[in-house]
Write a structure and sequence with these properties.
Chain lengths: 299, 299
């Protein structure tokens, strides 16, 4: 029986994964002292057990040490294996030195996680220049694909959807979701000139004006891409769009800003707990987790 | 020539250490993205160089990954050795499991630092149950003693000082400072019942009422210990005390609260940058750093 250990915010998702895995969900307590240190506590005997820690890494610097402490403590308490389910995985962008002297954080973060975990399961990480997790991770690492879940949600909720990809890099992914949902799609042109400065242009399209635009994005952080796309769609005379996002990072007021810009609705998966979560990854995470244990951990 | 690399807040101290070490101080740039990730950049060629990173660890969880990224990047850029000067060292308290399932963070944090650094220099860490850094650290680790600097400051600034130790554990340390300053001392009784709840009692003492009380503490975090001591001293009819603290952690409003309670003055070392810094560790840190390089690193 797998033990799914989670920090408080992810306990509900841990419960759903455990329910589907014939496992048990248990809390990882975290206490933050006034001086900035953390005290992590696990609550059950783990001797001989297979453990999966569930932790979403949208605030990676803050969570790194507590996560390390939790994993090492599970081992000290006798766990047979310790894996990591990170529905949102951090540090997937900086895979090379874009300027001299820059830290190449993607492989350094991978090494950091490998020091503590036997395997990794994540949901559609930001694979831009890195095309496969195995390029980065030496431990068994499995990426679950959210495209079928997104397509299912679109079919059930937006029958007249016209899908919109945020940039040319997303073309293949958006085409896949569109094919699964049996709906048309277009791709926006995106030019980025800083963390928060994005310029987006909308294609001329009859289909776009006839249906309900559904803008897809893998991550919404500052929300600038979505906001620009919404504004351009309004200018083009399209209906208020639905924003369908895998990972609800939403820095600062991003969510409110997206709604204020004119989105009909913002929908996300539960990879990061947020009020917009409407698509649960519990089933696919549970399946991936069982697969990991069957193939990689059991003697 | 040693290269002292520091995050922005510690660049002034890095400059003073470098000046005393015939070294060079250089910034470690850190950029925080809206999604919580960090980008760390080093700025100079480090091929074949001995590097010391200067980082104070009063917010350890937040700094851990950027520090790891900086150290590993220095190695990738060819540094011959990479040491750590951490004037304030974190995670020195949790050296055992006080309740079942707790993470024992002191050795886990030590392992984390050892993975990236060849040596460690720190100033009077909180050695409570851990009596020597070598019990925790397998890399060469040197603790500089601040007692002579504190005594020197007292002699120069509070000629009628009566030293007060915060609790019985501090007796040996306070006695040492008192001997070096050639002044009398007393020790408070302290009872702790939580992170922020402290009860302190002041001894009956003629000397205490005749001189200026100087309350010594190694760390001021919530400030509760100092505030209670100040209040008890006022009740006992003593003069407004000077608070002399090694590490200015000062969580939240602690500094203002200590002044409001009636402290004549709050004085700290520059182990953590703060407006109360009046005693510089640059000289002793520089000496310890040169000693490390001479004894441990050079072939």
């Amino acid at each position: 029986m797998i033990r799914i250990l989670a920090f408080p915010a992810l306990l509900p998702l841990a419960g759903r994964i455990a329910g589907l895995s014939h496992g048990r969900a248990e809390p990882i307590d975290i206490h933050r002292f006034p001086d900035g240190e953390s005290l992590v506590t696990l609550h059950r005997d783990l001797a001989g057990q297979d453990v999966a820690m569930l932790a979403t890494l949208n605030d990676p610097d803050h969570l790194a040490l507590p996560l390390r402490f939790a994993a090492e403590t599970a081992r000290e308490l006798g766990a047979r294996s310790v894996g990591l389910i990170a529905p949102y995985l951090a540090y997937m962008r900086q895979d090379r030195r874009f300027s001299p002297g820059q830290a190449v954080s993607a492989p350094l973060f991978a090494r950091f996680l490998e020091e503590s975990f036997d395997w990794l399961v994540t949901a559609d990480p930001h694979l831009h220049r890195i095309h496969s997790l195995s390029e980065l991770y030496k431990i068994p690492a499995h990426r679950i694909e959210t495209a079928p879940l997104l397509a299912e949600w679109i079919s059930a909720n937006v029958p007249d959807a016209v899908l919109l990809g945020p940039d040319s890099e997303s073309r293949q992914w958006v085409a896949q979701v569109a094919r699964l949902a049996d709906r048309p799609f277009e791709v926006l042109e995106k030019h980025r000139s800083g963390d928060r400065d994005v310029v987006v242009s909308v294609p001329q399209s009859e289909a776009l004006l006839a249906g309900t635009p559904v803008i897809l994005d893998d991550i919404a952080s500052s929300g600038r891409t979505l906001i620009q796309a919404i504004e351009r769609l309004r200018t083009a005379g399209a209906r208020p769009p639905v924003c369908l996002v895998i990972h609800a990072v939403f820095a600062g007021n991003a969510h409110a800003d997206i709604l204020a810009a004119g989105a009909a609705r913002v929908v996300t998966t539960d990879s990061i707990p947020h009020v917009t979560n409407a698509i649960s990854l519990a089933g696919v995470l549970s399946a991936a987790c069982r697969e990991m244990l069957d193939s990689e951990v059991k003697p």
